[in-house]
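User: Second chain of the day. Same drill as before.
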Amino acid sequence: MKVVKVKTNYYLENEETKIKLEPEVVHKYRLYSSSEVANLELVILDNQYYFYYKMALKRLSSMQSEYMLRKYLIEKGISKPVLNQVITELYKLRYLDDYEYALNYKDLKQYQWGPRKIEANLLTNGVNKEIINEVVELIDEEEILDNLLSKELRKIKSSIKSFEQKLIRKYYNKGFTLNIITKVLSRHLANIDYDESIDLEKEYYRLKSRLEVKDLTKNELKYQITQRLLRRGYKLDDIKKIEE
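Assistant: Same format as last time:
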């Protein structure tokens, strides 16, 4: 194969193949002339290395574990020897580090997801279990929930019980620990200054207006309204006050 220059780029070329040369390879092997290339296999291997190395660096502009980066490069067609060479160099320069990746991931996600989900996602992304355990231990789940739930309770527009159950489900599904959710929530609810009777009254008359169009007796209407309000967490004594 011969070296061919097209504008500012250099290519290895024969009748069947054309390979663009990375600038590092051109300079390293001084491939400036159109003569036949010595050490062709080595040149091609080095060219692949520099091509995929730069691809890996670009990919690392977003957080990547070693597993994620390997998977990406394999999908792009890298050979195993070149892959190992690229990964080794990235570790040597500390551009790739699964502990740092896990730590940064924790910092980024800990106010969005709980420890269980962070742990599951890190496992999926190929991080070693020992690293995950060490990083997850750094999460102060109670402090984070204290911050998140105090903001949530400013938005309450229903019965306290209903809102409490909604928050428990929401944060459990986000990966937070159930007993810590209930502990922090109970602490906030014990000090909350909220009169749910206003929302109860609105909900009562909304249900009454909707159900009155049905062919119900007075007692049936009262029963259905009461049952629906009870399911939504309102207290029976408070419902009776509205009815009276």
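The chain is about 65% helix and 5% strand.

User: Great, on to the next one.
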